[in-house]
DNA sequence: AGGCATCCATACGCTTTTGCATGTAAAACG
DNA sequence: CGTTTTACATGCAAAAGCGTATGGATGCCT
């Protein structure tokens, strides 16, 4: 086996990225060498340097195999019917996010970004986390403001505060789950938590 | 300057640990060499290898300069008067934790553990985070159960669920703040969030 | 005051990893 | 069908970082 067809070459590229994900999770990004990745995929560093410029390039390619979470989330929110029920829209968006996160590759890459890589070349995982948090909190704020205008939110809870509460809760749940995903399903736990939290912040039924 | 007095030697040891903290935060644990730490403290690696066995030993020493957060938290809860008001006890314990976290060394070490180190020798930061989470959630559960027995908790919110909600919220806030502590004060933000969350879960006044 | 232990700098060998250069056999293409 | 390009494997030089051995000047003890 020396020269592969184009399809086989693409397959080895994916295999290298798969191997990188596994090694990064097991030993951390900084402590895994390109040789370890290549061996774990059944190849040598030659294959790595053929498909990728260097370790940072491989890392980028690994990230680009998954979409950032809020690209999915905002898609889940484009139903115009949901604007009338913003709290329900938030709940469904969260559930949609949970579903996406449970896909193994999705989960692995986020676990690497958040728990198994400190800083790396031109990519700063903390900056990426900040971007994700900003995006998330911004979307939540919009929907909570909408809910407040419609009177769906308790009047003693400002929209900003509601957004911060839910944002922190989601972030904490996210981190806890990524630390040990086998302990519970983020879909089930998250659905319960979001449901009760939204119920708590919902305006009491008019009497 | 060659031989230092004992006090000076102890000072250089502290200076090395300070330098390590700063370099770890700036460049991550894995990507900072002992030489960088020594130079940043105005010394050479000789000083490092005199005071510490190796990088892992230095890391341990750095950790041992701060106490783990829940050692402080449980101390804040030993007032027997607070058992009668468990929700208030939880609030005060959180506030006490926030105060401790705002001390620079405290904050730096936790930021390193959570955001700037992947795995390192015999210490696994994820395991430490899990321990902290377990300890925190356990204490919260106890107090919420106490609150439930006293009727201080809404009867549609089980104690377990209340503990999980607050635990996730605290964790998310903690991570967000460690990512960029200059944006807000965890003491102020945390106090507000905990206060409103506890108010939401509190049993409505009897009528 | 003298000897010893301390505190740190310097120097050396070693391992690991990286980046590139080269080899090569088959696939792709005209 | 011949040539070129592809898709790797292999080998090599260089750098970085670690651990230790050694040196050396001074504080500390008797």
UniProtKB/TrEMBL annotation, chains A, B:
InterPro entries: Homeodomain-like_sf (IPR009057), HTH-type_TetR-like_transc_reg (IPR050109), HTH_TetR (IPR001647), Tet_transcr_reg_TetR-rel_C_sf (IPR036271), Tscrpt_reg_MAATS_C (IPR013572). The keyword DNA damage does not apply. This is TetR family transcriptional regulator. Residues 10-70 form the HTH tetR-type domain. It comes from the Bacteria. SUPFAM superfamilies: Homeodomain-like, Tetracyclin repressor-like, C-terminal domain. Keywords: DNA-binding, Repressor, Transcription, Transcription regulation. Residues 33-52 bind DNA.
């Amino acid at each position: 086996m020396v020269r592969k067809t184009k399809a086989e070459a693409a397959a080895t590229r994916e295999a290298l990225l798969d191997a990188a994900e596994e090694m990064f999770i097991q030993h951390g990004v900084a402590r895994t060498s390109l040789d370890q990745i290549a061996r774990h995929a059944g190849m040598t560093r030659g294959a790595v340097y053929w498909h990728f410029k260097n370790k940072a390039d491989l890392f980028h390619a690994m990230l680009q195999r998954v979409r950032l979470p809020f690209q999915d989330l905002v898609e889940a929110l484009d139903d115009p019917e949901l604007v009338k029920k913003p709290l329900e829209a938030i709940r469904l968006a969260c559930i949609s996010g949970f579903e996406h996160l449970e896909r193994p590759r999705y989960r692995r890459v986020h676990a690497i970004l958040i728990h198994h890589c400190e800083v790396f070349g031109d990519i700063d995982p903390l900056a990426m986390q900040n971007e994700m948090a900003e995006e998330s909190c911004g979307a939540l704020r919009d929907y909570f403001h909408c809910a407040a205008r419609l009177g769906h939110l308790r009047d003693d809870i400002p929209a900003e505060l509601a957004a911060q509460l839910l944002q922190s809760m989601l972030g904490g749940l996210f981190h806890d789950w990524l630390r040990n995903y086998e302990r519970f399903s983020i879909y089930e736990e998250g659905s319960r938590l979001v449901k009760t939290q939204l119920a708590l912040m919902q305006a009491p039924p008019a009497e």
